[in-house]
Amino acid sequence: MMSLWHLIKSREGMAMLRIWAFSLGLLLCGAALAIPLDRKIFQLQHQTWTTKDGAPASIATIDQTDDGYLWLGTDAGLYRFDGAHFELYEPRQGKISQGLVYFIKAQPGVGLWVGWGIAGISLIRDGVITNYGVNDGVPEGSWWGFDFDPQGGVWAAGVRGLLHFDGKKWRQIGEQDGFTARKASAIFIDQQGTVGAFSEQGLFLKAAGSRVFAKPLGRTDVRQPPQLGADGRIYFLDESSIRIIDGLARYEQPDHAPIFKGPRGEVQSMLIDRSGSFWYSTHSGLRRTDPHHPDSPEPFDKKDGLTADIINCFFEDREGNIWLATRDGLDRFRQTDVNKVKPSLDSYQIDQVKLLAGSGTAMTMASSKFGGGWIAMEPDGAVQNTDWLKRHQALPTQSLTRGRDGTVLVAAADALYRIAANNSEERIAWPADMGPVHRVYTIAQDGDGAPWIAVVGNGVFQYKDGRWQRNADLPKEGKQTPMCILADSHGRLWFGYSDNTIALLENGKISLLTTAQGLDLGRVSVIHEADGQVIAGGERGLAVYRNQRFEAWKINAKLLINVAAIVHSSAGDLWINSTAGTVRIRSALASWRQGLPIAPSQIRVLDGVDGRVGVASLLGRFSLAEAGDGRIWIADNGGVSWIDPQQVLKVPMPPPVTIESLTAGNQYFRLPLDTTLAPNSRDIQLNYSSPVLGTPERMRFKYRLDGYDTEWHEAGARRQAFYTGVSPGRYHFRVIASNGGERWTEEGPGLHFTVTPAYYQTIWFKALLLGLAACLLWLAFQLRLRHNAKTFKAQLEARHGERERIARELHDTLLQGMHALILDVDNATNRLSLDEPGRKRFDHLLEQAEAVLAEGREQVLDLRGTDFHGSGTFALIQRDGASLIKETGLQFVCRELGKKRDLQPASGHEMYRIAMESITNAVKHAQAKNLAVTVRYTYFALHLEISDDGIGIPPEALAQGGTPGHFGLPGLYERAARLHADLHIASKPAFGTVVRLRVPAQLAYVRKSWLPSFMRRH
């Protein structure tokens, strides 16, 4: 087995520790997560699931594992439920039977044990199922129950007797162990570690520390094992009764009066919950009672909404919810914060009533449907004013209020009744003109004790000096009906209207407050005073009156749409009825006075999930009130209910999210942890869940795929994530959940998966394509260079041919003619005598003509470039350079570096001219001592460098590209441009000059063909 340390270090171990911590937290607050005994069944939220909702049929056994999932054993296999979806369970590893499940039981920190009808015993742990059969010491047959001893051993009871599992192997318990029965009907281990095995021979007991069972006690067999209550007492069920026993050894003794006693086989199952409430089934449905006072059990059957009257089993989950598996479905009873009230007098239907708070625990509620006007009702539904109701049976109430002096004003159909604190009554007849509806919408009493009424469709009246009268300064001369009236503690009267207007009556004067005074509520449905502060509510939220104007109270706009009623409780909280539900804002006024924003943690919305089933209406001015004991009462079209602010349930934290499955094309992985997907798995679906069994409607999820997403995605209630276009790589899918609060779960292990690349998505294939592309680019580049070189060569050859043509023409015409002329002049001169005066002059002219002829021949040779075919460029530069510096005393060095290559004749000629021009400039102008010429052959280019250590070129001449009237430098640049070469001249005064020429290889070298010599074209 894995050591604890290695378990903690593993991913699975970390996930298990988080689940254990979650479970321990629930257990430590078990008292809070239990339905209070004083809550009636009708006050609990009841929800059902049948096969139409996806629930399995024939549920026989229920339990919950450490991860929070609810497990259901059925005739058709094992199901799992996360509060939202049912699924036929499939393990991540191992094969599971789809047959009859007799019993399941979760062992904390281990897993779920399954007793099959014919398939032996199985253990499900972390998505892996281990099946135990005959080869493992588990005989064939049905297994009906499990329990766990303090040492962690597992006991199994079934048709083939009793088994024990020590963590390594199963062992049959038989006569050698003192167990002589053929079957074990049920197994139960008490707090002292005593093992009790019920059988056809009675009860076998094995004390803690003993190796063998004692002889059987009694003869009563059972189908369901006893249960241990939160009070430490043992509850025992036989075929005709349920009772408490003082110990296993006294299971047949009548130590206590039965909680229930009926015909044989009447009771099939039972449950004692953590609060001490006792639930049991009968042939006529569910019963719930206080085991200390069992005489008046609460019934609940199919007529009340139970899926069926025959109940197979009960279960209480860690959130305190009670689950029932019936013949036709699954039922859940859940405690909510909003508790319904049913009046003890069945003749009263309390829907659409108006609430009027008093100083006691009872709440006064009025309705036009009541005979007697109103009822005063306690939280348990008891009606306190039965005497009044008898006296005023024909007094339906339209509206009511309580003045600051304690006077109650009741607007009945026939008149206004003013009831003093001493219960004395005054009847005031209505005005003669009560409008077409003849109905009082709202009522108030000013500081002088005068009543004010708002009549539907007929405006406002004040009762003063024994008569009803209007105030003409109110909107439409008092004929516009307000939606609400408030008499505040300063003697002011406030009237709220449906056109975003509030009229303030102060010291006999009317002031109208509209958008100019900051009012932006739409219909003003309620005006409330809280600690001297006036708050108005309407369609668009809340506004607070300060400094003669209203300030919008920016809380949460979505929660404060259509504000119908406001209560500032004695605890300092603000309660609001709105479209969102009943909103509680803790310490709201204190935050407002301090200029602090309302934090999300201060806000709690109580809605349908919390048992609030009605809908708030803008006309529900009296739909919220606080009783003297601090309970908040709510009245709406769903009836009347109350909230105890001291016992508002905390929102349970959901367990870490479980990745249920991954689907990619035809690939399916169940409960994956680390998965490798096939190539081209581009469309991926991930299913996940975090089981919350009480409020799954509030579950919200966020997920992120590392390697794909850059931020978290808000999934809302959706429990699926979809990804398309997922490229090959390593990914980590993470999910967190929230149960409607601010807090989010810690991250679970999530899911790592790898998308395998196809061959064309691999690095080597991409590298191959990249190499091929590089080769193609290189080939294209070479072809382009060759094309350019060929074009340039053609241009050079054309230019060279033109030069040769010019040289031939010069040789054949000008030079030949000059040579003939010189010969003629020489012949003429020779005819003159030596002492002829003109003879010397002709000799001098002949010398000059021969010099011009020699220079012409040199130019012809230069045009033809014949020397470059023979000696080579470098040899010519070396020879002619040495000739130039012969008489100067310069140290002249020529170097040839790299592997020598044959040069293109035209390119060699231009390079020679550039070199000789540079050498000539250095000899004539540099005043240098050393001159060096270097030719370097490389693969990509030919480099020529001429450097000297002379006085350098003046900067202005170098910047202008030469000196006016001199063509040395411009000639160098022109020749380099004709050669498509790069020429750079660097010079500094007193540091010499360096001329660098770079000629691309395609233009400089003679290209060698890779074809055989016989295939080359000449």
UniProtKB/TrEMBL annotation:
<dbReference type="InterPro" id="IPR003594">
    <property type="entry name" value="HATPase_dom"/>
</dbReference>
<protein>
    <recommendedName>
        <fullName>Histidine kinase domain-containing protein</fullName>
    </recommendedName>
</protein>
<keyword id="KW-0472">Membrane</keyword>
<dbReference type="Pfam" id="PF07730">
    <property type="entry name" value="HisKA_3"/>
</dbReference>
<dbReference type="InterPro" id="IPR036890">
    <property type="entry name" value="HATPase_C_sf"/>
</dbReference>
<dbReference type="InterPro" id="IPR011110">
    <property type="entry name" value="Reg_prop"/>
</dbReference>
<keyword id="KW-0812">Transmembrane</keyword>
<dbReference type="InterPro" id="IPR013783">
    <property type="entry name" value="Ig-like_fold"/>
</dbReference>
<feature type="domain" description="Histidine kinase">
    <location>
        <begin position="910"/>
        <end position="1003"/>
    </location>
</feature>
<dbReference type="InterPro" id="IPR050482">
    <property type="entry name" value="Sensor_HK_TwoCompSys"/>
</dbReference>
<dbReference type="GO" id="GO:0046983">
    <property type="term" value="F:protein dimerization activity"/>
</dbReference>
<dbReference type="Pfam" id="PF07494">
    <property type="entry name" value="Reg_prop"/>
</dbReference>
<dbReference type="GO" id="GO:0016020">
    <property type="term" value="C:membrane"/>
</dbReference>
<keyword id="KW-1133">Transmembrane helix</keyword>
<dbReference type="GO" id="GO:0000155">
    <property type="term" value="F:phosphorelay sensor kinase activity"/>
</dbReference>
<dbReference type="InterPro" id="IPR011712">
    <property type="entry name" value="Sig_transdc_His_kin_sub3_dim/P"/>
</dbReference>
<keyword id="KW-0808">Transferase</keyword>
<dbReference type="InterPro" id="IPR011123">
    <property type="entry name" value="Y_Y_Y"/>
</dbReference>
<feature type="transmembrane region" description="Helical">
    <location>
        <begin position="763"/>
        <end position="781"/>
    </location>
</feature>
<keyword id="KW-0418">Kinase</keyword>
<dbReference type="InterPro" id="IPR005467">
    <property type="entry name" value="His_kinase_dom"/>
</dbReference>
<keyword id="KW-0902">Two-component regulatory system</keyword>
<dbReference type="InterPro" id="IPR015943">
    <property type="entry name" value="WD40/YVTN_repeat-like_dom_sf"/>
</dbReference>
<dbReference type="Pfam" id="PF07495">
    <property type="entry name" value="Y_Y_Y"/>
</dbReference>
<dbReference type="Pfam" id="PF02518">
    <property type="entry name" value="HATPase_c"/>
</dbReference>
